[in-house]
Each structure stands twice: as C-alpha cells, then as structure tokens.
Amino acid sequence: MATINVNELMLAFDSLCVYRNLINDRVIKKLYELGVLVYRKEPGADEFIRKYNEFFFELANSSSIQSLKEHVIKLILFDENPFSRQSEKLPFDSINEILIDAASKDLDRLYYISCITSDVLKEYALENICTCEVEKRFVNSLPAWDFENIRGYEQKKLSHNCEKITDIFTSRSNWGECVKYLSDFYYTNGCGIFARYNAFVWEPAEGEPSLRGIESPDPICLSDFIGYEQERLEVIENTEKFVRGLPANNVLLYGDRGTGKSSTVKAIANEYKDQGLRIIEIPRKYLVDFPAVLRMIKGRNCKFIVFIDDLAFEDSEESYTVLKSVLEGGVENRPDNVLIYATSNRRHLIKEKFSDRAGLRTVDHDDEVRAKDTQQEKLSLSERFGITVIFSSPDKKRFLQIVEGLVAKRGINIDKDRLQREAMRWELMYNGRSARTARQFVDWLEGSENLRK
Questions:
Q1: For 122-161, how does the pLDDT look when each residue is reduced to its tens digit (9 = 90+)?
Q2: Residue-wise pLDDT tens digits, 260-289
Q3: pTM to 2 decimal places
Q4: Count of CB atoms within 10 A of residue 326's CB?
Q5: Which residue has the higher pLDDT, 285 or 30?
Q6: pLDDT, averaged across the chain
Q7: How far apart, in Å, are the Cα atoms of 71 and each of 31, 85, 100, 286, 450?
Q8: How far is C-alpha 336 from the geometric centre of its chain's CA atoms?
Q9: Model pLDDT, residue 151
Q10: Domain 213-391 has CATH 3.40.50.300
Q11: What is the pLDDT of residues 299-317, one digit of tens each?
C-alpha cells in the first residue's frame, strides 16, 4: 500500500479553523479537490489525471515557481484571520490562549498538507486506481511538483523579515511550535496585504477604488543618492521619529523638477519597510477618496506614509478642501499611524490668477465680496504641512559634484576634464542642470564607455 493516508489528508483540510481562508487559494483548492476525488469515490484514471494536472498547473502558475511547502508558508504569512489580526495589535502574551492553541493546531495540519508529494499521490493512483498498463504509463508520466531543486529561475525577493520567518518554518517539522515566531512577525509587519507588500497605490479595481499592492516597487535606496544630503536628512529624521512612535510632521517637498523629491520619499519608504513602514500613493485625481483610505488603515499596527506626487490644483478643483481637512484635522481625524508626504513643483499648491487679485478692487457685481478670504484660502494649503523642504536646481559646481559622485560609485574610469566637458555639453543639449539630468548623463556615459571596450 502507498504511504499516503487520504483520510488523514482530508481531515487535516476539514479541521482548519483559524487558517480556513487558505482553502480558497487557487492552488490549495485544486489539491483539496484532488483529495476529495480520491477519498469520496472510486475515480477513473482519467479523472485523477485531470485533477492532478489542474493542481500542477495552478502551482506552476503561481507568482513564482516554488514547492508546495513554500507556497503554503507564504499563504500563512500573508493571511488575514482572527489570530493574525490580534497578533498585529497585541504582543504574543496578550493574545487569547484559545486562539493561540487553535492557530498552533492549524499550523501542524498545514505542515502535513504541505508535505504531500507528487510521488505519494502517483503511487496511490498506481495501486488503487489504475486498471491497465496504459493508465499506469500515463500516471507515471505525470510531472513532479517538487520545484525546490530547480535552477535557472528568479524567485521574487521577499523582505528581510519575511525571509527570516520563512527560514524558521522551512527548518522545522512541527509548525505548531512556530506560533510565537509567527505572532511576532505579524506584530512587526502587520497581516494580510500589509505583510505581503510594503508599497501600494490607490486605484479603481472593477469600478471600485481600492488598494493595490505593488509587486515590484522602485528599489531605490538612500545610498544611491549623491547630493542634497541636508535636504534629505530633514525628511529622514522626521520619518525616524514617526517609525518610533514619536510626534512627527506631514512633509511637503517642493522645488525644481528632477531634483529627487519623489525618489527621496520612495527611498525612505524602502529604508524603513522592515520596521513596519508602508507607503500608499494616491493619485491627485483620487484625493476625494482620502477619507476611505484613512478608514482602511486606521487601527493597523503598521505606520503609513500617504504619498501624493506632483501635487497642484486647478482653480476650479474642490478636492483640495478634502486634503486641507485631513491636514488640519476635520471631524474624522487623521490616524496617529499616518503621515502625508507630498511633492510639488509649486510653492503655492493652488493656482492663483491675477484676476483673483483684481477681484479685490472690482466693481463687477458678479465677483465675490470677500475675495481676500478666497485668496488666503488658496495660499494657505501648503502651510498645513508641518515641514517644507526645498529642492532647488543645482548650480554648476553642485551639478558636477553629483556627476563625479555617480561616476565614482559606478567605477567608470574617465579623465576629470573630459568628464566635466561632456557633462556640461549634455546639460546644455538636454534638460538643464538637475540630479535627474546628471543620472541620465552618467547612464549614457557608462553605456558609451562599455561600448568602446
């Protein structure tokens, strides 16, 4: 007889209580259907082969080629359930003991499920299902799903904290004993999508605005930058206070294009992601959804930077009142775990026309009586940010320092005089002096130098 105990496999599935959501995963659902087919009736070889291949397809088609055990571990880490939600908010010693015990037993059941191999099921089919040599030949030819030893593919990079807890699960055969490690992971990283992703964008999904986790966020880090150290330091120090639970301010980064404002925010989010910092980008056109975003992340243990890039409003737009209300504290206050970081090329975020000022002295009966009040309201939005950091275009000396720093970082060997001549010619021909122009020039230079070799 085969070593598999189909009855025990199905009992493990049906006994899941805390982690019951995992059965709805496409891969696990197909494995469950295969188990039901074998357990509840005498399937034909054709039915077994079809269900087997449906499961294999889903596993091979998952986000990255991985073993069944790796897939189950990731589902555990990123599941949102009563245990993970309590663990996100409370230290392990404060969680209900009944819930801990239930989660621990579920983890042991999931370990058993994750250990089911292709050889075991094929052996079971050969002994209990196949009735002729032709059927046995087809079952023997079914693909194995042990992807652990496959080379030549690139697995998706997990965060440092995810890799640590994954290593703990991978090295153990009694997953129930890992329940405290798992609880600590949730407490640091959050649960559900906030454990799985560190960067999000707010956008419509099937007609309804929602959070979309970004699979491959911009990997830029603080060590990649050359120049603007003082401007960046002010934003870094504010973020460190925020991550540590100290009072911190909303930040407006404004200045000339290409000076690294947006990249600074993204790099800071990457720097502190393992300390529970998450970033949510809200496009300007969806600012009216700001209260919905706040309700979704309120009460979470993670810290959130709500990022608004290239912020500016037309005179006719009313969504700026939503942002102003959030900044200064409306009826629905901004949660303590949320800061707003915005970038803009404009010091005053709402466009003001000369006609607005002319309205202060107009005799037109259709003009506003209190035009001065409207003017001040438009100019006051940027003042609602506690910290304003200015990123100005670099002068010639600073531009060349950025270029030389990037060249040194990349190990490009070039005469200094020639480098400076080429850099100044580039900025005249293209986008003017900025950190972005410097990087674009060095990209071109590196490619040209390698082409000559």
A1: 888 888 888 899 999 999 999 987 765 444 344 556 677 8
A2: 999 999 999 999 999 999 999 998 888 888
A3: 0.81
A4: 22
A5: 30
A6: 84
A7: 12, 21, 23, 35, 41
A8: 21
A9: 40
A10: yes
A11: 898 999 999 998 876 554 5
Total Cβ atoms within 10 A of residue 292: 14
Report which residue type is found at 364: D
Residue 349 pLDDT level (bands cut at 50, 70, 90): very low
Give me 260's structure tokens.
């690294």
Q: Is 216 in contact with 104 (CB distance < 8 Å)? A: no
Rounded average pLDDT over 83-106: 96
Q: If you average pLDDT over each of 30-39, 297-306, 343-352, which comes out highest?
A: 297-306
Residue 217 · residue 200 · CB < 8 Å: no
| Cα–Cα distance for residue pair 50/72, rounded to 1 Å | 22
- DSSP-derived pairing of the beta strands 199-205 and 208-213: antiparallel
For residue 320, pLDDT beyond 50: yes
Ordered by start, the domain boundaries in the chain are 6-189, 213-391, 396-452
What residue has token string 């030549």? 152
Distance in angstroms (rounded) separating the CA atoms of residues 84 and 184: 10
- Judge contact between 200 and 212, C-beta under 8 A: yes
Distance from chain centroid for Cα 198:
3
